[in-house]
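Async update (no meeting this week)

Hi team, since we skipped the sync, here's where things stand on the single-chain job. The sequence we agreed to prioritize is pasted below, unchanged from the tracker. I ran it this morning and attached the output directly underneath so nobody has to dig for it. Comments welcome in thread, and please keep replies under the output.
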Amino acid sequence: MLQINTLKQNTDWVKERLGVKNFKQPELVDAIIALDDERKRVQLSYDNTQALINAASKEIGKLMGQGNKEAAEQKKQEVGNWKTEVNQLNEQLIEVEKKLQETLVLLPNLPGPTVPKGISADDNEVAKEAGIKPTLFEGAKPHWDLIEDYQLVDFELGSKITGRGFPVYKGKGARLQRALINFFLDRATAAGYLEAQPPIVVNEDSGYGTGQLPDKEGQMYHIAVDDLYLIPTAEVPVTNIYRDVILKEEELPIKMTAYSPCFRREAGSYGKDVRGLNRLHQFDKVEIVQIAHPDKSYEILENMREFVSSLLQELELPYRTLKLCGGDMSFGSALTYDLEVWSAAQGRWLEVSSVSNFETFQTNRLKCRYKDANGKTQLAHSLNGSALALPRIVAALLENNQTENGIAIPKVLIPYCGFDKID
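Output:
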């Protein structure tokens, strides 16, 4: 959530940055400023009237002590009128504060200064490309055929149990999932991230804190009876660990990692690009999160991007890094890198990670702060990234490493899998 002072002090600049993010309602900035001015006006009237009541109440006591009951009664009538006015002002204040909050949360985060202009994924910048794309033998298959041939994943059984997009992993398919999760967690903890095992359902406050609510409620699975949400990513519960927390400056950065199943409705998804493991309603992912000092957050973002890249290098997967343009960024991000792996049988890039700096957008909602060297309370910056999401990693591993005699397992995964080939 943006800070109102930023909107007031830099109105034209804020609108220009929102334009980079292709935001279509810049007039909301003026509406928020007007609502905040109204809030201050009502608050001032409330405070002044309350001060009159307090002063009159003291005066009534003096008058009663002096035996001047008539003057005291007159003052009591004035106090009664002012109390009615105060109650009305309080109702106005509650209403304008509610409207201000409801409007403020409609504004996305401002894109950072290096974010390229653009409207869609076609306008993203390729920051890096690494690895060698494999040349497959004639008759090589896409992963959805391979998982059927080798009985690694059963989509029909998942549909029977739950519905489309909820696969059942079997045999070496299940063991490969577990191997990747353990590999990713081991690498994250070796890089200094503290592992957590958070709940996979969160309350509304948690969804609001990281920006999923009210922006993405249509993409989240809602448990209506208890008013809880299945998490779309471990970012939500892990970042919320620091909701309403004031940290010491020397504690920064805080680095955490977590594995979780993730749940996304993916409403409206269809077509060839969602076949097999390309797009699911439930999938596994390891997440990394950092709470950082504002002066260090962009350096940390680059370090997180490099860490995710190192995982792909160890898995021997060709990959590329994209710097997202304003129009393709998420609601809360100030700068995002997407990492994609090459899917040889499909002949296209598959996104497997987003690494983002949210600056103060989440921490302002979360009230996640730290005390600086002068004892002043400041908002921290929050960052997160997928390290990594499993489905498309598995898809690329199966397709890129297939041979006429089976599917080879990357060397780094063999100790985790307990086998070197799927055959």
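Quick observations from my side:
The radius of gyration is 27 Å.
The longest helix spans residues 27-65.
Reply here if anything looks off.
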